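In this section we walk through a basic example: taking a raw amino acid sequence and producing a predicted 3D structure, encoded as discrete structure tokens. The instruction is simple. Fold the sequence below.
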Amino acid sequence: MIKSLKNIKSFVIGFLCCALLSATVAYAEESSQIEVYFNNIKFMFDGVEKKPIVNDGFIYNGSTYVPLRFVSEALGKDVLWDGDNNTIWVGRKEGNSVLLNSLAYARLDGVAQQDGLSFNRWNGNDDYKHLYGSEFSIADETYSHGLGLYIGKYLDNWGSIDYNLNGNYKRMYGYIGIDDFTKNSNSSGIVRVFGDGKEIYTSPKIKGGDLPLEMDANLTGVLKLRIKFESNQKDELNIDFAEIHLVQ
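The resulting token sequence is shown next.
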């Protein structure tokens, strides 16, 4: 029996739920006693069965709970319990990070100055009012944060946004792709990232229907950041740069 979350570091690492047990009874930090029943659950990864060394999964109140360490290691990711901050890290541990959209931008250029740029959700100008308020979506995956640029047939084929970082960040990462709104467009797009005028990241050409690209750029020492969206301008195109994090 486990009486407090503060005393279950190994169980926090081992299981996805917040309070777990060594037999059949557990206590959450501020909740009532519960009973759960372990079950013989089979775990398949890409068609291959894998078994946890310790701690089977169990079913409680209609939900199935599985060992977090087992799942993370089966996917090739480390898992770490940070007791000081009550945080579970799966995969690489990062420093403090902020969403790019939480920062005020310094300047817009190209079609970004012409209501083409949207923050977190599509603005929807006169050309695409029906898109107003929609989340960014790449290959059926939706994102609640980021930048989206609309490039029309008869506008400039690029737009950019600048931020003053003042050397406060070491890394930027996020997802790049063509929004599902223009997934059938004949155009392709590119996203470039500049640090103090030097190109530090260039995406491959992306077309509608492509899976989102994971991007990662080194920002160490960068004072001014520029993100530039480009299209070959054969057709209308909506380019997404989603869930952009800056790591301090």
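Looking at the output, two observations stand out. The two ends are 40 Å apart (CA to CA). The chain is about 5% helix and 40% strand. In the next section we compare this with other chains.
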